[in-house]
Structures are given as C-alpha cells and as structure tokens.
Amino acid sequence: MNRRKVGFIWDGNYPWDIRVEKICLSLIESGHEVHLVCRNTRFEARKERCSGIHIHRLPAIRPHGLNSLLNFPFFFNPIWYANIKRIFNRVPIDIAIVRDITLSLTTLWAAQERQIPVILDMAEPYPEMIRAQLEFGDLSGLQRLIRRPELAHWVEKKTLRGVKKVFAMVEESQRRICSMGVPDDKVIIVSNTPDLRKFKAVQKSYPGIMAHLKSKTIFLYVGFIDFYRGVQVAVEGFQSVVKKHPDSVLVVIGSGGATTHVKALATSLGLSEHVYFEGYQEHFLIPEYISACDVGVITHFACGLWNNTIPNKLFDYMAMNKPVLSSDASPVKRILEEEKCGMTYDSKSTVDFAKAASRLTDPTLRAFLGANGRSAIERRYNWDWEAKEIQRQMQILG
What we know:
Blueprint: E1 5-9, H1 18-29, E2 33-38, E3 47-50, E4 53-57, H2 64-71, H3 78-90, E5 95-99, H4 104-112, E6 118-122, H5 126-136, H6 141-146, H7 149-162, E7 165-168, H8 171-178, E8 187-189, E9 217-222, H9 231-244, E10 248-253, H10 259-268, E11 275-279, H11 286-292, E12 295-298, H12 312-319, E13 324-327, H13 330-339, E14 342-345, H14 350-359, H15 363-379, H16 383-397
Parallel strand pairs: 1-2, 1-5, 2-4, 5-6, 6-7, 7-8, 9-10, 9-12, 10-11, 12-13, 13-14
Antiparallel strand pairs: 3-4
C-alpha cells in the first residue's frame, strides 16, 4: 500500500464532527497522513495535532464579526482558497477530500496546479437542504435572498464533473447523483455507521435529567432543533401519547433555531412534566443518554433533503439495542423495515406519530426491535465496512 498525504477540507471548526473524525482516523489507521483544513471562528491555534490529525486552521482576525465573515465558506472565498492551496503545495498533498459542496469549487481550483485528485464527501445534498430550510421557515428574510437552491444546484453539477469520486451516504443519494449523469462507478456509498469501539464501554449512568426519569418510558431525540427537522411534530403528537400512557416522557437533546418555538409549544400543550429539554450536550455523553432511554426518535420531514441522506443517530440507537421511532424519510424507513428494528410514521402527522409511539410503550416489542437493530449493526451497519471502502478508493486513486 502506498502511504498518501491526504488533505481533508472541512467548512466548520474542528474539533469536532463525528464523520470528519471517522474518515480521518480511518485514513490514519490505514497508514496515511491526514491534514485537515478548517474554519477558525473560536480563535484557536493555527496548527495543532489532534488524535494524529494535522490541523491547519484559517487565520483568526479580531473583531469576532469580521473574523466570522472572513472564515465563512462561501462557494468561493479567497481566504479559504489561499490557505487550501498553501497546504496543498507545502505538505504536499496527494489526494484531497472536501466535505459537501460549500468549498468544493474552491478545493478543485486549489488542486488544479498539481493535478491533485479530489473526492467529494456528500454528507448532505446541499441544494435540497436549502429547499427544506426555505419550505419549513428556517431562513430569515436576508438569508432567503442569499441562499438560493438554484445557485447551489449549479455548484453541485460543476463539482460532480470535476471530482474523481463521490462518497454518498445512502443508496437513495447514489441514485440521485447518478441521475445527473455521473457514472455509477464514480459514486461510492460511505454511510454514517458507528465505530463500535465507541459503544463497548458505555455504562447506563443516567446523565442529566435521565436520573430522575428511571421509572418512565423514555423517548429520546438527539440532534439540532430546526423547523425542517420536525421536532415540533413529535412534541405536539406527544400530547396524545401521555393521555394513554402517562408514564411516557420525551427528552430532547440539542439546540437550534426552532428551540424557543418548540419549548413554547410544549408549555402551551401542558407537557412540562412530559417533555424535557436538555440543551446541547458534549458528544461523549450522547452514548450514555442513549443507553438510558427506551426508544430513539428521528423526526426529519420526508423531503428532498432527508430522502437523500441519513442521520448517524439512527445507527447509534441501533448499536445501543434501542428500537427506533422515525418519520418516513426514505433511507431510514427502508432500513427499519428491512431489519425490523423500529416503526415509522407520516412525517407531518401528529396523529400518526402518537399511534406509533403508543405501540412502542410495549416493552416486549421494544426488546424485539432493539435486538434486531443491534444484530444489523454487528452484521453490516458498522464503520468497519465504510473504512474498507475508503481504503479501497485510496488505492484506486493512488
């Protein structure tokens, strides 16, 4: 195997992002050297080693507002371009991976001089994400003018022509990409499955509010709280659940633009003793929260975005033997039905949510579904599969 110097372009701060970490550490474990170029809105050190990853952060300039603007990953930002190209040339980089399309054209242009092959890691179909944010009201007036799906679609098509390979999350995303004229062998599925080593030592510690809810049937949502993620449907539907099953509670972990609205909704429905908001929690605590719950919840609206990507929380729930209650977004629904490890509901129906949630108050059913989910994780849906595929692509491009 040829040892390669891989440049990973990530448009956020690092640490931390679970997918970035898994891909980078898999490359390092395979013998490659990984250099991560990332944002720097937290005024951190420009260079750092973290778990073997060489981190190269953008320059940070005060005041904070100006720094945020200069660090912003526009489709083309000269600050990003200059820093990416400098790292590519100085290291020098052999293969580049860029996360999503926000910096894909910038990465392709920076790679041109030395003809560095670029892989697009398409965690989310960005044009569809903007459409979802527009549809469900997550963008303000100015953002609605600036963030246009038409521009994102143009960038996406141009990117797909320029990159050597595309990592797609799920089969549905792979089909979407190929429908745009991309050859089948150029699109590789690298999903959001868990590294099972992260779950082996998890103890049921009942962190935070979970310690006070041990006697309850705990439904747990983990993730951002935005309107297009549909948490409000679960909260409203939970009113019907507690009428029939008063020992049921919903715990929501995360934050986001819809937090205030969703909290107010829970209060207005008289759910203060049944819906609990834990706010943002550090990533290392999430397995402990999942271990302490009875049902893992996914609420995403079935739309162009969620029908073409998949949340890592699905596999995290399954890895912890938890049955999954999910909206009917295509990839999650497909896996739950194939593996018989959860139940789905119409993503916009509070009535349908309540019916499915009520069924999952049955401990016998939960145990059956949870065991099936764990079996599926051990058999197929684990990061070992994705790591092998990533390494295979490194060998092809090397």
